[in-house]
Amino acid sequence: MLNFEFKNPTKILFGKGQIEKVASEIPANAKVLMLYGGGSIKKNGVYEQVKNALKNFEVVEFGGIPANPEYEILMDALKIIKSENITYMLAVGGGSVIDGTKFLSAAALYKGDSPWDILKNAIKTEVGLPFGTVLTLPATGSEMNSGSVITRRETQEKLGMGGPGLFPQFSILDPEVVKSIPQRQLANGITDAFTHVLEQYMTYPTGASLQDRFAESIMQTLIEVAPVVTNDPANYDAAANFMWCCTMALNGLIQKGVPGDWAVHAMGHELTAQFGIDHARTLAVIAPSHYRYNFESKREKLAQYGKRVWGIREGDTDAIAKAAIYKTEAFFKSLGIDTKLSDYTADFEGTAQKIAKRFTERGWLGLGEHKRLSPADVEKIVEMSY
Description:
alpha/beta, Rossmann fold, 2 domains, 8 strands
């Protein structure tokens, strides 16, 4: 097992009726900026619950944060933070709203010339404007980590940021919200969380037995609840397990003591930036090809995954490892998630070369757990994903 340090300061309030506790988690004298997305919270009752909980606070609202939080829109919110002297933020939404709020947390206190530099130069934020979250769409795990990914439409870029100052102070997770989530978003959430686990698990053995089994249990639970929650989102137990899996998949716990990959996300972000494809679906496009291309270095973990998660028993190590990739692809398809870029766009020619060129320009010359994947390798993986 590799050496590690672990600290997660986010307080979780999980379960029915927890939204009413928002007020007790925010400083009494705070001036609050409430951020949300396209307005679904006004249809499912969450908006009313949050507003009622905040009735004794001075609240300014900012809605319209899109599914891939856009830098240009967030800059409008930043102007409000500064002009209104906002002292606290509350993100009410899914990962996109929370990611956007994290960017604003960093940008609000940033002393540099342009907030885009935080993303372009991967500046770690040590202290940000404090914020909490009310999760309405389980998927990204952003409610209990310090990472964020922001899109800039003008340049077709999607870049990550983070730092210890960007953990939410608290996050409210009420599984009741799941019953109002559309099927497409449920499928995306399951796929996103599952792939988050794979990025931290599908590397090479390090003797981290407990970490492996933490990861495997999250994947097994997602496989188990997927048909239930997609067929009956009002099933509270399935919704609760789905929601907690998404949080546990990326709150930092399962990545300790093991190497991480994250090349799938690096490539997937480019597909979202270029074509607007849902984040989770880009991961399902890239992951199978990534594992096939890097089969030799991932063989042992692929076989372990095949045996423990999918129950594959027949064949040698190679056969089980290959079957595990097939099972993963089949799982995504069972959710209605297509796994080829050509399923999403006819304009895919040249995509691999464009992504490889961008990685070269950014100096991303060694991706993956071994830091050996070059832009030329990236080009081949993306081409395999057509």
